[in-house]
Amino acid sequence: MRQPKPLSYTQKAGIALLVTWVAGLVDTLGFLMLSEILTGNMTGNSVRVAIASTATDWNTAAHRLWPLLMFVAGLVISACIHEIGVRRAIAQTSAIVFLLEAGLFSGFIALFPAPQFVSFRLFSPYFYPAVALLSLGMGLQNATVTRVGALSVRTTHVTGTMTEFAEGISQFIFWAWDRQQRGREIFPLAKKIKSFRETVLMAGLWAAFFMGGVCAALAGKHWGALALVPAIAVLLLLTGVDMVRPIAASQEHPPQENH
């Protein structure tokens, strides 16, 4: 059977932007609806667990620890799916993950299908399943689209993105300075320079996450959990893409040591 053509750098970057937009939407909507719980960014949750633990507020600590556990569970499940895919020569593992993620978000909508905003309080009977559905989905996604070319990307939070952006722009500044000192042109060749392309991508990922958050804040006020519908549509679209042009097979990974 003829192997599908690998995705280009631009195509992989486009996919990363889409799933990052999904993460921005989901994380923001979860923050608004789940008593400021972050379902995709575990740094903030870790800080709150630490604060609650030192204050011996074990109820709050448990509520903040729950998304951490679910996020890690999602990471493990996603990694296992991709490892099984490698062992059994299944290229379309990303499609499986995207479908699972879409199913989890659909389950969140099922908890409160009415087109209006609702906030699940910490002691609501819906709180734990609601957090689990979103955090599992974010964990699944975070271990799926992990590279664009040789560049590592994480699509559910932007801290690492900003670090990569700073590194890329500093490299580009020095490259541009060296060329300017030699009296050479800068901008005609800039788009071919690795550091410039990476800087543009990192800026784009942050913008995608931000716009996802804006969409959630605006749509969530009127549609509540139904604001997840566009995110589910994007995941289903990417499922179709992966069936035709496998994303996992197109990702470049650094060589591993033989054991």
Largest sheet: 2 strands, antiparallel
Q: Compute the gyration radius: what is it?
A: 20 Å
Strand elements, count = 2
Strand order of the largest sheet: 1-2
The backbone outline, from C-alpha atoms, is globular
Strand residues, percent: under 5%
The percent range for helix content is 55-70%
By DSSP (H or I, 4+ residues per run), the number of helices equals: 10
N- and C-termini, Cα separation: 31 Å
Structural class: mainly alpha
Could you list the spans in which at least 5 consecutive residues all have pLDDT below 50?
Answer: 252-259
Order of helices and strands: HHHHHEEHHHHH
Mean pLDDT: 82
Would you give an account of this structure?
This protein has 259 residues and is mostly helical. The protein has a domain of 176 residues. 69% of the residues lie in helices and 2% in strands. α2 packs antiparallel against α3 and α3 packs parallel to α5. The C terminus is likely disordered.
In short:
The protein has 259 residues and is mostly helical. The protein contains ten helices and two strands, in the order αααααββααααα.
How is this fold's topology laid out?
Blueprint: H1 9-33, H2 42-54, H3 58-87, H4 93-111, H5 127-142, E1 147-148, E2 151-152, H6 159-181, H7 187-190, H8 194-223, H9 229-244, H10 247-250
Antiparallel strand pairs: 1-2
Helix pairs in contact: 1-5, 1-8, 1-9, 2-3, 3-4, 3-5, 4-5, 4-9, 6-8
